[in-house]
Design goal:
This protein has helices spanning 84-95, 97-112, 133-136, 144-148, and strands at residues 11-13, 28-29, 32-33, 38-46, 68-77, 151-159, 169-176, 184-188, 193-198. The chain is an alpha+beta fold. The strands form two sheets. The chain has a seven-stranded mixed β-sheet with strand order 1-4-5-6-7-8-9, with helices on one face. The longest helix has 16 residues, at 97-112.
Length: 212
Amino acid sequence: MNRSNFLQPLVPADTDHENDLESCPPRSVRGKEIGLGDVSWNGEIDAPAFKAFRHKTSHADSSAAGSKYALSIWGGKVEDAPPESAITLATEFLARQNEIVDAVATAFCDEFHGRGLDSGMWWFNGLNREDAAWVLQGRTFNTPDDMLAALQLTGIIIRNDMDGVDGYIAHLCFHADFEEEHGVGVLTDVRKVLGTGYLEDVTPYGFKYDET
């Protein structure tokens, strides 16, 4: 498979990068660093469909170069190439990028209206709850297109260490008009949205950590 079809360059990186929104994709999620000896393979992915997300922000990483976005593939060893299963998912991600854009916008619109799967986040049914009104400040997300104006993609992580999911999935990193402090993350297997949440804490729908 010709990896240059969708990312250039793809290089291994060490694991001591700072974990914050200024360097999305983040280097850890829920405090879990990549395992010792593992690497993050970093490059760029050309995904023009995601320019449909048009939220404007002052963050340093807010403007992708054209339609190129930061891509990280987690896993593998420094002496190896990126895992083939991760490359396969990234290829499928590109092939289905229009469908993924629609799925993400629809998922958030449904959540704000209390439809579909519950992420457990404050925005689920947020348009119908008084306790969310102070955050929304009059925003109305009546259609998926309204969500396109409220989100901006900043990076993609292809990862296989997500609790509650087997195998590789895509973790999409967004700046959000309705969640400027934390940003938002979206999990997808490129066929459907698997979960939404804060950028660094997103988990699959229905997943709960054991608190014992």
